[in-house]
Every structure is written in C-alpha cells, then in structure tokens.
Amino acid sequence: MRRPSLRAAAATAAVSAMALTLAGCASGQAQVASGSPTDPGTIGLALPTTESARWISDGQNMVKQFQVLGYKTDLEYAQNDVQKQVGQVGAMIQHHVRALVIGSIDGTALKADLAQAKAAGIPVIAYDRLIRGSGDVDYYATFDNFKVGVLQGTALADAIGLKSATKAAPKRIELFAGSADDNNATFFFNGAMSVLKPYLDSGALVVPSGQMEFLPVTTKAWDGKVAGARMETLLAGPDAAVTLDGVLSPYDGISRAILTSLQAHGYGKGGKALPAVTGQDAELDSVKLVNTGGQSSTIYKDTRELAKVAVEMTDKLLNGEKPDINDTKTYDNGVKVVPTFLLQPVLVTKANLQTVLIGGGYYKASDLG
Ligand code: GAL
C-alpha cells in the first residue's frame, strides 16, 4: 500500500486530531484506523554522539517527524566510537529497517554495511555528514558546508578588524579544524581559509604557531578536550610572547574549550581582551556566551529543517518518488557524486542573536538565563 507523503500525512494527522477534539470522546483506535497507514515499518537512525546537544536535537526532531508519518524509528548513538556505529548499522540491516539515515562518525567506515543495505534493498541517506567511499549511499541532506566556513572566516575577519590590518601591524590568530575523518571538517576549513588566506599571504594576518595546514590543526572526534589541550600547548609555546586577536574554531564544543584555555592564560581579565572565537551549531551554552560577549559568533543550522529534509527524502524514496535535491555537483564521495539537498547556514553574533534564534523560535528568551 502506498503511504501518504509528509504533507499529506501531516494534514491527515491534523484533521484526525481535530476530529478527535470535536468528537470529544473518540478513542485512540478510531484515530489509528482513520489516519495511519498499515505496517509503516521502522527507519534506522544512526547518529554520532549524545555528547553534543545538536545531535540530540537532530535525533528528537527526526523521531517526531517520522512518527507523524506513521513510521517507527530505531535511534542509536555511538558515542563517537566508529566500530560501535558500524555494528549499530549492521544490526539495523539485520532487523530489516525500511531505510537508513546515517550521521556518520568516520565517513569511510560504513562501506561494508552499506553494501549489505543495498543487497537488502534498504535506501541510505547520509545525514549532515557525507558517507565516503561507497556507491551505496543514495542521497545526502546537509547544510552548505563550504559556506559555513566562509561565514566563520568572515566573522573572524570582521571581529578582529582584519580589513585595517597591515604587514607592519598584523593581527594574530590560531586555527582549529574539526575531525579529519568527517568530510565536513575539510569543507569548513577550506571555506574559512578562502577568506583568510589573502591576509595570510599579505602578512596582515599571522599564525604564530605556523600551523596553517588542515591536518595539523584538526581535532580528533571534534573533542573539546583535545582542542583545549592543543590551545594550552600553543599558549605555553609559540603564543606565549604574543597577544592573540582571534581563534578560528569550527564548532561550539571546541570553542568553549578554547575559551577556557585562553582564560586560564590570563585573557578576558586585567585589560587583556578575550580573542574573538568563532563557532558552529548555536548550542545553547555557546549562544549564552555569544549573548554575553564571551564567544564572538556561532553558525546557526536549524536542525528542525535538516530533519525535515531527511524525513521527506526517506518518505519519498519509500514511496517510489524522487526526493527534492538542489546540488548534483559538490559532494563527490570518491565513488559517486551524491545527490544532495543543501540548506543555508546563518551567522549569529550578538547583533542578530535575538532576531534569529529567539524570533525564529529555536530558543526561548528564558533559555538565555
Ligand atoms: C559536523 C557538523 C557540525 C558539528 C560537528 C561536530 O559534522 O556538520 O555542525 O556538529 O560535526 O558535531
């Protein structure tokens, strides 16, 4: 039986809810009989970790939205353990999920799993992070990752007044990137460097450590502790004799750890201003810091919208329809160019935080404390 599309099912659910309210005493059974498809099946959702607030929201949003369509879900987190995620996805295939939505940890580790999924006729959607090295990934739902990096680089440049810097009076920053096994990390870094490189080339911008290539500045598993430790090492070494103006940070969890290290080294007090530190994900703890001036910016990626795209893609695929895509060029995973739907990221600073995050309903004013 062909199941309804997302919009149709949502409308049906709204109508049944209204009918129930009007009837006053209608039973749940009546609602099931009138609104839900028979045997909708289970969707396997494999996400990286609950250690970061955003992935918790991603999971909750998808579960809610799949349920509106009548699907069941199996949501698993792997706490950034690559082999654990490989096992979780394998088990989902054994349990005959109807489709897989995967936010991978190591984008290259799922090849064998996906070959099994293909053989079992289970469609696969890469969620936020590209799955690499496999021809068996059907679609990709994400944000414009290069643009995220451009926004981060631009925010940093603006915050430190880079336009007026010169070789004689340069600005000084350190660079941090995400986890090397996550395809997004390269995109973020390259996007940011597309903005910063001309200033590095002219000498108006200096990286005291000299660490400007991607690999030396990456942060295994996006782990704040790893980044905080590297910041400590830099502050005790190449950065000890200089004043830093900024730090390029790819993600809020890393930004907060960097800020803690900077504060431990005397920044943010006694007339020594905190360097401008970028971020990503608009995690509440970082949004609070942006609001009070501790973190200079973050990037807002509405996980409700990303979940909606992934859920619609899955539902369309399972109904024999073609999912909507808007990019067929950018995401070559080494085996194929994966058809993608890209959402737009938004830069958040203190200036637009209220309008974007509170006005947009992502947080409540009271969440800011
Ligand atoms: C990336 C993702 C970012 C951030 C980071 C750490 O893949 O695109 O938004 O969440 O992982 O979790």
Overall description:
The protein is α/β, with parallel strands linked by helices. The protein has 2 domains: 6-137 and 302-343, Rossmann fold (3-Layer(aba) Sandwich), CATH 3.40.50.2300; 145-300, Response regulator (Rossmann fold, 3-Layer(aba) Sandwich), CATH 3.40.50.2300. 42% of the residues lie in helices and 13% in strands. The strands form 3 sheets. A 6-stranded parallel beta sheet has the order 2-1-3-4-5-11, with helices on both faces. A 4-stranded parallel beta sheet has the order 7-6-8-9, sandwiched between helices. It has a two-stranded antiparallel sheet with strand order 10-12. Strand 1 (42-47), helix 3 and strand 2 (72-77) form a beta-alpha-beta unit. Helix 6 (145-159) runs parallel beside helix 7. The longest helix has 20 residues, at 183-202. The chain starts with 5 loop residues before the first helix and ends in an 11-residue tail after the last helix. It binds beta-D-galactopyranose. Residues 43-322 form the Periplasmic binding protein domain. It holds the Pfam family Peripla_BP_4. Keywords: Signal, Sugar transport, Transport.
| CATH H-tier superfamily of the largest domain | Response regulator
Runs in which pLDDT lies below 50 for 5 or more consecutive residues are 1-7, 10-36
Order of strands, widest sheet? 2-1-3-4-5-11
Tell me the β content.
5-15%
Number of helices: 12
The span between the termini is: 49 Å
Radius of gyration: 23 Å
Largest sheet: 6 strands, parallel
Principal-axes shape call: elongated
Please report the first level of CATH classification, the CATH class of the largest domain. Alpha Beta
Mean of all residue-level pLDDT scores: 91
Fraction of helical residues: 40-55%
Find the structural class using helix and strand composition: alpha/beta
Name the bound molecules: beta-D-galactopyranose
Which series of helices and strands comes N to C?
HHEHEHEHEEHEHEHEHEHEHEEH
Number of domains: 2
Per CATH, what is the topology of the largest domain?
Answer: Rossmann fold
Question: What is the tally of beta strands?
Answer: 12
Q: Can you tell me the CATH architecture of the largest domain?
A: 3-Layer(aba) Sandwich
